[in-house]
Amino acid sequence: MPASPVARTGARILVDQLVRQEVSDIFCVPGESYLAVLDALHDAAIRVTVCRQEGSAAMMAEAVGKLTNRPGICFVTRGPGATNAAHGVHIAKQDSTPMILFVGQIGRAMREREAFQELDYRAVFGPMAKWATEIDDPARIPEIVSRAFHVAMSGRPGPVVIALPEDMLTEAARVADAPATIATPTAPGLAQMAELQKRLWAARAPIVLLGGARWDEAAVRAVARFATRFDLPVAVSFRRQMLFPADHPNFAGDLGIGPNPALLRRFEDADLILVIGARLGEMPSQGYTLLDIPGDGTRLVHVHPDSSELGRVYAPAQAIHADPASFAAALEGLQPPNRLNWAGAGAAAHESYLAWSEPGTIPGPLQMGAVMRHLRDVLPEDAIMTNGAGNYATWLHRFHRFTRFQTQLAPTSGSMGYGLPAAVAAKRLFPARTVVCFAGDGCFLMNGQDFATAVQYDLAIIVLVIDNGMYGTIRMHQEREYPGRVSATTLKNPDFAAYARAFGGHGERVETTADFAPALARARASGKPSILHLLIDPEAITPATTITAIRAKALAEK
Q: Average pLDDT, stretch 26-38?
């Protein structure tokens, strides 16, 4: 019979559960509401990253969830701390990322009096999280933390929010620890795979789309082998380029914002669309126009780890409840037909992708196309690329060729300010790997203060701040809808290179194409967190057009 557990405070019980769950890192902004947890962490084998703003801390935890398929952990204080962190929770929700946010809470006796910084976290986070709860009894901490890990990783992964009353954290209890949590796989049945094989054999123009979460390196390799055997064109969903190697002869490109028109035609002409892991949300579906809703004849085979997602928007010809890793393993058993009705489609799709991903010229002395080619040439294959939201991200998504799994951190939710915190988290997890953050001038200053976190922990990230003096995406839409009437989109920016140096990092200003390569080399050699301030011509609003051209077209159509 096991010995009776020793009495521990709620805070110690909580930290012991995180150790049992093999948590290596947490991200936080300290607060008096969970001082007891901070004290318990003092002696724990968990690395604590102290951040400068709760939104950044939550995004760092979310980035860890993306990179590891285990919940990223964030601690924040009550009230303003929690509402700041909501930014990261929303990203985790829309990006299907496992994450747990612990929030310090007022004492239990003070509830429902609107005490200092009081919030009802179930009400605040209920619609945004997979589960939001509050722990009243320290003896239930192992049970609730275990459940939180299961919920965050199961089905379609997502965020869990747990409130921690500060007096509960100092109360003692005798309770056993919970075992480590392992995500439960969901595999397809033999009959489902046999049906899919029949559909593939009957198809004339099939195509595969990859997206979502719960992938691993073995699954990526298995899908690549499947694509080779069946000579299938394979595309990836919005900001999921790392799910299929860009140098594979069947890679067709990404189905996101402003996709390759030839790729769109390929989807329109397809008689079988195999979607693995993706929800087919607004961006990849081109505003829900790519497929008929609710059904699309016999074209759609939808594979997803959450049964509630199957049939929620689209009525598929075949629905397969399976996580991508298990489904990818099952693909090994499928056999191609003796004669492929679509022979050569993979090569043709890849040729179109290669042409689409070669940048042209833009106005101004700094050519982003040359910047992207240089990055392609000099960065290692396992370099991790991060970004937030804005037109500048098109340079990364369209022209960088991701060839390795676990090399991309980007918010499908379109959240600004994500790139810098994600880069800090990636470098914290993988200090030997190169980490490059793309950020617009507006995007960077959403969370630019956490460049200090990179400096504090000697995390030699490289941040490319692409500065056109405006909120570029909104200016683009403004010129289309209200040509010439510029309102609330102009920015007056600091010297971002000087900003980097002020924090103790390396900073350089890049104004011409010739400046970039030597500046990048110096940044990499510095061993410091670096910012390269890239000044591009404001006319270069996208790789394909200019502000003047957009305005002229809009005026002509009015």
A: 97
